[in-house]
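Repro:
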Amino acid sequence: MKRHLSITLVIGVLSLATAGNALAGNPSKKKLVFDLNTCIKTAITAAPEVGEAQADLDLTTTKLQEAKAYRYPQADAMALFGPAPGAKREDLSPTINTDKPFSIKEMTWFTSADLLVTQPLWTFGKISENIKAATHGIEVDKAKKQQKANEVALEVKKYYYGVLLAREMKDLLSELQDYMTTGKKKVQELIKHDAPSGDEMDLYKLDAYSGTINKHMAEAVRGEQLALAALKTRMALGADVDLDLASKHLTMDPDPSGDIETFIERARLQRPEYKQLKEGLAARTALVDAAKANYYPDIFLAGVVSWAYADKRDRIDNPYLTDRFQHVYGGLALGVKWHFDFGITSAKVAAEQAQLNRLQSTKSYAEAYIPLQIRKAWLDMKEAEQVATVTKDAFANAKKWGAAALANFDFGIGNSRDVFEALEVYGKMKADYYQAIYNYEMAKATLEYAIGEQPMLSN
């Protein structure tokens, strides 16, 4: 067989994974037979990147809760306990004593508690814009999680179809090996009976072809084991699990309905990356507005309660005098807090604007790249479909050619070269046929990923 067959056997399979060798069936192992949807569902559930995306979503949810909490009152409380000098009412009446000496003997202890409650009334967007940014951020992380799930689904399809491709190649090689075995027996019989068409050179050719087929068979077996092991690893199945696929053959599913423009429009509506960009731009715009809000003051309502007590100090009830160690008072006030700086706020606004500009550039790239990705996947799918149709007819005709050449050879009116050429074309075309089906299924999977089609998961 030609080198082309070797390439066909392992393309898309040997590069699938670097996982450990898949083990053969073992009675002590748990036997699982999964279809494609079950493999996808299991892999998504076990995927660490999906778990990381969920953790990011949970983090963003807490940021939204934090942003909303700024709408409610905040309280600051402080309690003190310590020494304080004693004081008597006589020190102020009828005249203020300005030269009273300090006396350790008159020291006492005081305790105090202060409570400040503030209720934001108007912050010029500091609270509302951060709430808006966090809300859009949650949608961004939801889309990221879906994107990771779609990526896992695409990877699982590559492994799943890779296993089926390797198995089809094994069956084909077994078929070709059977032809070689049958042919060798026939030639040996002709030589034994000194038939004119019996030639030892044919035995050498058959042995050479058989060696090549055995080599390809080893490659196909290794490719199947690697792809199956990679699939098990992706699904987080342990070594005690013996996995097999519900699909027995590599078949071509129907085309997804629609043309390229239809798929591009569907991608704009449902692809996670588009949603990330849309929600991300809204979040970044809100963060820019929130940063600009720091140029303006905060208007709030404040409530104050203060209490202090010291044993050896007389209470002074005078609106002009406040005793830090002996008092009780409280009240409400309308407050304004305005922070001024020289360049800090403007730098923060510029930083948020830079992030917004960066995301807008990403959006421009995505709007150009995603349609190109869709177009390429659609064209690859159509090309693989045409190749599958052509090669199916080709290997069917080559099989007929081989049967006729073998019949002529049996009757002594043909030569072995025709038989070998027919088998070579048959093997190559059938291998190309299965490779085309694999290419078709992967192009279709890529197209579904490119338009944001979510995995069809069974409950």
